[in-house]
């Protein structure tokens, strides 16, 4: 039988560059090969006849050909592959305000979206801790042993240096930040964007360690109606619903949820690891599309919650005395956004939010309560062309906290305003180089003026390799709402002396390297490494005084964090393996001495193995390692592993079931260490550096109509 050779050169449809590692396969003959670095592929010993040829490559649309052999003169084909619509879907980043795609911006932005967002949302549908804690460089730090309060730490720095935003609006700062992570459900989120390092040019003081921007869903061309029901082995219940639709020039989204927790004590020590709580949330938004150039949206969010942790017998009503921690909160915020496009290359935007937060914290023989009213307004203008983009704007923050209960001799109330103006330029210097520079000027009513420059540089020598570097200055005005005061329930805290303190100043820089390697047509590797350094000068410290009070001091010195984040993603057919490592070396420097910063795992591993049949079924195995952490009392906590299994099965077009086994090793601080000293009636709590809730199973169903 005659033998033939198949010769082809395979290129990218847009760039016309040769594609390496493209799989070419003859199913009937069970023969195949992969393209070389020049995009060429040769397959020998093909018998005469007509055969199907399959050409596949990760991130590209597959090509299916029918070829008859012999081919006249053994001709060589040139085939062009188009980018796959699903794999290469462009993610537009909102946090940079430019509207560029994630591949095109010099600033390093991490995005959690699509199926990844849904998968993580399944694990804790009642709050967003799981969305963030599984990322390299991010740790959610529990600040209360009994009520579950938590904050976000980026690259080991205290939670007060991270700015949490909703659609670019700062709704969760100050007094309202203490329970934020526990009161945000993820079902109505489109994506989560994380920028690590100095981000103060666009967002002002507070974004020293970085920012987390929660992007809400907006009405699409098709109606969206989703419901989620989740139950846990700890007797928790989450009910969520989301509706979105557009009717011509009007659109709407409505999110509502009910979340309930039952007092849970897996250690049997008589204290809650999960508190008893009940929370209601409603978030409607209206959208007006006045014409093709003008869009306005208006919404409000209301959350009310009662949370009670502490002595199990007290919560069950079996005793009238015992330790407890009660949190009653009401949160109301409004959001307004109006955008007008003058042309395809320029637009102006006006946005505003007003936030009301009322919280009462009660422990035995002490109650602290207050009301925070804050607002944010901004006007920005964007113009862009093929080579240059400009963003200019101005904004105004107002914040007022009124203490109603607590120590009347030490009123923590305050009021201030901050005005700021900023300009940012993005310049496509050459085909492979893009430079982003920015400058911000702020005036804070209590602490004066600040000038904040920053830069980001993108170098893309090929589609496979990308370099980013950036840095800038930041500042944080002193606040009494920190992780330390939260642990103390704001008891015995002396007010900050504004005349004797100054803002904390920061300098940060990072280097980011990304490489995509199509090992074969079926196997690919994406790698990322981030080197970071941030230094905060004259940080505010909470220290005890001789009379049993706590005062904020500002000794001469600094805190610095330095390290590396490394990520690898292997993809092979329906399997994906994620491996992440974080090294964070955080130290305090005072009086020419350096000491390790507390509650930072210097070494962390994030490992996830996923098997996914798209649109049908997925299952994942995860394992996380935390190295020993120094504690505030000078001791060192133990290292530990957390493992879990997550899964979801699609049944029909509209229905799916999910089941998760979280913390299967039942890793708990109460198994290998203590969480308090003294007696259970008056516990003195230690730092929480490991989980306290242990092994929990959760599962439920999702309905999409």
From TrEMBL:
Stretches assigned to the TonB-dependent receptor-like beta-barrel domain: 285-663
InterPro entries: Beta-barrel_TonB (IPR000531), Beta-barrel_TonB_sf (IPR036942), CarboxyPept-like_regulatory (IPR008969), Plug_dom (IPR012910), Plug_dom_sf (IPR037066), TonB-dep_rcpt-like (IPR039426)
UniProt entry tagged with the keyword Signal: yes
Keyword Membrane in record: yes
Residues of the TonB-dependent receptor plug domain: 102-210
Family: Belongs to the TonB-dependent receptor family.
PANTHER family: HEMOGLOBIN AND HEMOGLOBIN-HAPTOGLOBIN-BINDING PROTEIN 1-RELATED, TONB-DEPENDENT OUTER MEMBRANE RECEPTOR
UniProt name for this protein: TonB-dependent receptor
Organism, as annotated: Cyclobacterium qasimii
Organism lineage string: Bacteria, Pseudomonadati, Bacteroidota, Cytophagia, Cytophagales
């Amino acid at each position: 039988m005659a033998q033939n050779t198949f010769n082809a050169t395979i290129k990218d449809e847009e760039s016309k560059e040769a594609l390496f590692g493209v799989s070419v396969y003859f199913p009937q003959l069970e023969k195949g090969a992969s393209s070389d670095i020049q995009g060429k592929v040769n397959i020998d010993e093909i018998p005469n006849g007509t055969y199907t040829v399959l050409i596949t490559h990760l991130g590209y649309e597959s090509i299916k050909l029918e070829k008859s052999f012999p081919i006249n003169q053994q001709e060589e084909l040139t085939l062009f592959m188009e980018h796959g619509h699903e794999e290469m879907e462009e993610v537009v980043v909102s946090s940079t305000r430019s509207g560029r795609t994630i591949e095109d911006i010099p600033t390093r932005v991490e995005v959690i979206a699509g199926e990844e967002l849904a998968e993580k949302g399944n694990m804790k549908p009642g709050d967003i801790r799981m969305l963030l804690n599984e990322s390299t460089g991010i740790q959610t730090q529990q600040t209360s042993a009994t009520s579950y309060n938590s904050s976000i730490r980026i690259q080991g720095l205290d939670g007060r240096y991270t700015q949490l935003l909703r659609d670019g609006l700062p709704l969760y700062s100050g007094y309202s930040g203490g329970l934020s992570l526990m009161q945000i459900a993820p079902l109505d989120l489109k994506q989560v964007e994380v920028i690590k390092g100095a981000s103060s040019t666009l967002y002002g003081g507070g974004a020293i360690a970085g920012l987390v921007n929660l992007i809400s869903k907006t009405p699409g061309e098709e109606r969206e109606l989703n419901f989620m029901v989740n139950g846990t082995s700890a007797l928790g219940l989450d009910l969520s619903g989301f509706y979105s639709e557009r009717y011509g020039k009007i659109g709407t989204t409505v999110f509502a949820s009910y979340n309930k927790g039952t007092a849970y004590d897996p250690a049997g020590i008589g204290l809650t690891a999960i508190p008893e709580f009940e929370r209601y949330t409603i978030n409607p938004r209206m959208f007006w599309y006045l014409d093709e150039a003008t869009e306005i949206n208006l919404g409000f969010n209301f959350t009310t919650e009662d949370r009670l942790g502490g002595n199990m017998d007290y919560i069950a009503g079996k005793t009238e005395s015992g330790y407890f921690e009660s949190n009653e909160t009401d949160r109301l915020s409004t959001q307004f956004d109006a955008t007008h496009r003058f042309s395809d290359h320029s637009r102006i935007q006006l946005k505003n939010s007003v936030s009301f937060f009322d919280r009462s914290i009660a422990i035995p023989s002490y109650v602290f309560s207050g009301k925070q009213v804050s607002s944010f307004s901004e006007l920005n203008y964007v113009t862009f062309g093929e080579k240059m983009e400009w963003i200019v704007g101005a904004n105004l923050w107002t914040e007022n906290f009124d203490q109603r209960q607590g120590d009347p001799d030490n009123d923590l109330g305050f009021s201030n305003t901050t005005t700021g103006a900023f300009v940012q330029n993005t310049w496509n210097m050459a085909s492979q180089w893009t430079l982003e520079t920015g400058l911000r000027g702020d005036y804070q009513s209590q602490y004066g003026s600040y000038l904040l420059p920053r830069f980001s540089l993108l170098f893309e020598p090929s589609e496979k390799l990308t370099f980013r570097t950036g840095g800038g200055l930041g500042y944080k005005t002193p606040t009494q709402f920190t992780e330390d005061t939260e642990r103390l329930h704001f008891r015995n805290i002396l007010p900050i002396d504004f005349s004797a303190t100054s803002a904390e100043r920061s300098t940060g820089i990072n280097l980011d390297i990304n490489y995509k390697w199509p090992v074969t047509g079926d196997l690919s590797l994406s790698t990322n490494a981030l080197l970071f350094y941030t230094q905060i000068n004259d940080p505010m410290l909470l220290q005890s005084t001789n009379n049993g009070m706590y005062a904020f001091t500002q000794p001469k010195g600094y805190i610095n964090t330095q390290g590396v984040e490394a990520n690898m993603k292997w993809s092979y057919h329906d399997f994906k393996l994620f491996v992440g490592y974080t090294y964070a070396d955080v130290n305090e420097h005072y009086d020419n001495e350096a000491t390790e910063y507390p509650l930072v795992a210097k070494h962390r591993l994030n490992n996830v193995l996923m098997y996914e049949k798209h649109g049908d079924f997925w299952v994942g195995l995860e394992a996380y390692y935390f190295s020993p952490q120094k504690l505030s009392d000078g001791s060192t906590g133990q290292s530990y592993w957390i493992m879990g299994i997550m899964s979801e099965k699609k049944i029909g077009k509209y229905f799916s079931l999910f089941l998760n086994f979280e913390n299967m090793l039942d890793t708990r601080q109460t198994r290998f260490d203590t969480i308090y000293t003294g007696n259970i009636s008056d516990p003195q709590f230690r730092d929480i550096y490991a989980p306290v809730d242990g092994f929990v199973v959760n599962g439920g169903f999702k309905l999409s109509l």
